[in-house]
Amino acid sequence: MHPLDNIIWQALTTRQSEFAETFGSAKRFLRDVTSLTALPDYSEQDYQSLAGLVGPGGTTGLFLEAPFEVRPGWERIAGAPMLEMVYENGSLPSASDIAWQELGPNDSPDMVELATLTKPGPFGTRTHELGTYLGVRREGKLVAMAGERLKIPGYTEVSAVCTHPAHTGKGYAQALMSEIMRRIVSRGETPLLHVREDNHRAVRVYEKLGFRKRVLMHFAVIRRDTASRGKLED
Question: How far apart are alpha carbons 144 and 87 in whole angstroms?
């Protein structure tokens, strides 16, 4: 098993266990941190645990090895094929002269607003607690950001890379990514990221930064039927 296989599970059972909520065999991040959830084997018993974890009508996001298969009591409401890419270059981009700042709790509303507009992936009011987040502000408004999300031994994910549509093409995202990558590498860890397979422009940018495709995954947002009750919920 590769260390990056079932990465959400690996994160919730190692470096980010303090953010884990558990029911039976299912684990998820605290709801205001992110909606990501993981199962150890994705067996029927695991999905029963997941039903107890999310509750009737609850939704959650999974990283899967194959497209989500329809099963009783669950509905797929969103998702897409997703590439997992790992940094393999070894030579980091040179530092940019773009001014950025570290983001924290006071910036959370602006971060959520930007993520809601640009949709880089699940982002909650406490996602910033998962690692370092950097941003670019123009006239006081947060117009670009990038940060760290999933962490397992030896690896840290670069995530929430996004730019306000009115400020694209200025190199903000690449500058922020490069700084986040430098910090990860300085700790002796390897950066990785996840990107929609059909986002060809982003994939090309990431390849220029030294990322290489490792595996095709499938992101699925699923919802529990409000009338369904798993065995572990009774």
Answer: 22
